[in-house]
Amino acid sequence: STADHPDLLADLNDAQRDAVTHTGGPLLVVAGAGSGKTRVLTRRIAYLLAERGVHQGQIMAITFTNKAAAEMRDRVGELVGVRSNTMWVSTFHSMCVRLLRREARTAGLGSNFSIYDADDSKRLLTLVARDLDLNTKRYTPRTLAGQISNLKNELVDHEDAASKASNELERKVAEVYAEYQRRLQLANALDFDDLIMRTVHLLQAFPEVTEYYRRRFRHVLVDEYQDTNHAQYTLVRELVGTGTSPSGVEPAELCVVGDADQSIYAFRGATIRNIEEFERDFPQARTIMLEQNYRSTQTILSAANAVISRNPNRRDKRLWSDLGAGDSIVGYVADSEHDEAAFVAGEIDALADSGEADYSDVAVFYRTNNQSRVFEEIFIRLGLPYRVVGGVRFYERREVRDALAYLRVLANPEDTVSLRRILNVPKRGIGERAEAAVAHHAERERLSFSAALRAAADGRIADLNPRAQRNIAAFVALLDELGERVERGDDVADVLEAVLERTGYRDGLAESDDPQDATRLDNLTELVTVAREFTESAAPAEDAGAGDELDEEPALPAGSLAAFLERVSLVADADSLPAPDGGDAEDTGQAADSGMVTLMTVHTAKGLEYPVVFGTGMEDGIFPHMRALGEEAELAEERRLAYVAVTRAQRRLYLSRALTRTAWGQPMSNPASRFLTEIPSELVEWRRSAPSADSFGGSGAPRAATTWAGSGQGSGKAGPVRGTASTGWKDAVPMKLDVGDRVSHDKYGLGTVVATEGTGPRATATIDFGASGQLKLMLIGSVPMTKL
Ligand code: ATP
Ligand code: MG
């Protein structure tokens, strides 16, 4: 009763309180950054449990990252205690895995299915493209992966894709898509996009399944709603229902919170469309706006508003703060990226010395991961404690992936991508020829690769040389031996140890002279630790709601190898956790970062807040990204990203840029970021880089510096701005391009030539504009493109 929870509503404003206590139809909370959307969502859950008699098993809360899910669970835990433990608080992906495991049979899956991440998908696509005799220079696995992912995010299956294809590229993609799905099915594997799409298809095809979940989840809550894509939106709609079901189940209560200005995943198919769809599909929905920002000073908010207000087609919001004007924003123009990093490090030190901020109060943001290196170097040199979120992630390291591939094969022998990965790793004399013979046999006999491998071991493949056959037989025997350990229920860590021992993987590294191999050994040891912690955390603990029908046991046996692999694949997802995460929620919250400066990309910073924020690399061509220059939709997304960056700051915001920097392998002089110049000058106190203070004279440094950079363009204007790469930039001069050349296109940004054809005015080049996932065939002489 309210008496037990007097403060659930006390520290909320009226609009927030309305949102927390709203009962009945769907609720959409749209509001700017820092206005308490996440607080409303968490508080609403607590309120449902404490005041409305809702059982935790009836709640499904969806967040964008596992980190956010862990934080939310923590926050709810603080409010209502251990009852939060058995609640479904997860990302879309985790939620779908859980649901698909329970419904595996209905969904036509083995319940031990593997989850393929981006790298696994690309490996499989490479195999598919090769087998379909595609020109892999032209259709790179990356392009194919991007195209297939887009289709899945739109819930287009391979049959629809084939019937809708209207050009050569689309037809090829559809063909690859069909074969890729066939192989995934054979391997009993799903890629990340499948997790969502298969769940949607399941719910749409089996009303009784949908009915079960609708009965069960009476409350669905979604944070960061602006970043859900069409497939995810449809999933939510299926779960909630838009009307009373035939057997009388009313739609669940739905509460989504988001901010269209913070939609930063358009490249993954998220569109503001989902807010429009919401209003269309749920016409009776109530919308609540929040206008008070509790996070940032007015100065920081004004800067954020100045930047975002330039985006076209947005609903204007009046966001205000009563935290006072606070400190000015500090602007800094560095000579180089090294100078910028030195400035940042110096300021952090000074803040720490004066007691103004702890290291853990500080975050350094950059646009792309590779920018972290310069900061890391200087932080290490100065002994400044830091951690990088993202970057080369633990679970992406080769040795970690190799070890996990062994475990995956043991858990799911049909996992072809993993099986082929480890076939000759470490080297055991099963070469490419032997692998091809096995693959060929599989294809001819319509067998899985693993079945064909067993045929090879038994000498049933004629065109295999005896030595390869012996080696395959030994390999199969080794897998069987390791498999027995799994069967008899050894701890995951023990199985992993056995893998590293029995395959000779560990000895191979230990005997190597390559210093990198020492690091690899450390990483494997770390992985064993992760596995140990996993086993310990899986040991049965006292259960808050034991015996309750809604507290079901997990779909996978706790502590099992499959459960471990599932945890690992999901952690390795969008989150980019800095270090292996044993799964303990407390390890993933911001509280665990104590004593360290956090370095991360702006994308990763979504939803977080820090007393002190450094926004670095504020240059046109860096942030906004080169690719977005002159491309209206992409520029609008970069602007939203800038808005996200600025609104993470609570008390102090630094914005810096460098006059020269090495980017894309070239020294470049970039003009000031247009976002920087849009911030009203009275909000910024400019400091400069000492050595070249003379170069710009007077105040208003950013403009002066723009001129200095010699781009000859006002930095505030839209349209393509050319950086001045040292090689010089020229317009559309006929040029000779070779495979591997890097080019910059006014519209598509940076690309790599993957094929060329013809000569003279008819010469064409196929160019992979990687990041945007686009492959283009171009007449070299007639496009606004420059060779770098
Ligand atoms: P974002 O758009 O960045 O995700 P948000 O809208 O989710 O932001 P929250 O993170 O929920 O905002 O809240 C921002 C900060 O303001 C948090 O520190 C939160 O605790 C605080 N806050 C929110 N509402 C109130 C309130 N009514 N009183 C005091 N503090 C509040
Ligand atoms: Mg939030």
Describe the structure concisely for a colleague:
The protein has 788 residues and is α/β, with parallel strands linked by helices. Helices cover 43% and strands 14% of the residues.
Strands side by side in the biggest sheet: 11-12-10-13-14-9-17
Total helix count? 29
Q: How many DSSP-defined strands?
A: 22
Radius of gyration: 27 Å
The portion of residues forming beta strands comes to 5-15%
Low-confidence stretches: 541-549, 574-592, 690-734
Structural class: alpha/beta
Q: Any idea what the CATH architecture of the largest domain is?
A: 3-Layer(aba) Sandwich
User: Can you give the mean pLDDT?
Assistant: 83
Helix fraction by DSSP (H/I, runs of at least 4) = 40-55%
Bound small molecules, by name, code or SMILES, are: adenosine-5'-triphosphate, magnesium ion
The CATH C-level name of the largest domain is Alpha Beta
| Integer tally of domains | 5
Give the overall silhouette: globular
Q: Determine the CATH topology of the largest domain.
A: Rossmann fold
Binding site for ATP: 31-38
InterPro entries: ATP-dep_DNA_helicase_PcrA, DExx_box_DNA_helicase_dom_sf, DNA_helicase_UvrD-like_C, DNA_helicase_UvrD/REP, P-loop_NTPase, UvrD-like_ATP-bd
GO biological process, one term: response to radiation
Domain UvrD-like helicase ATP-binding: 10-297
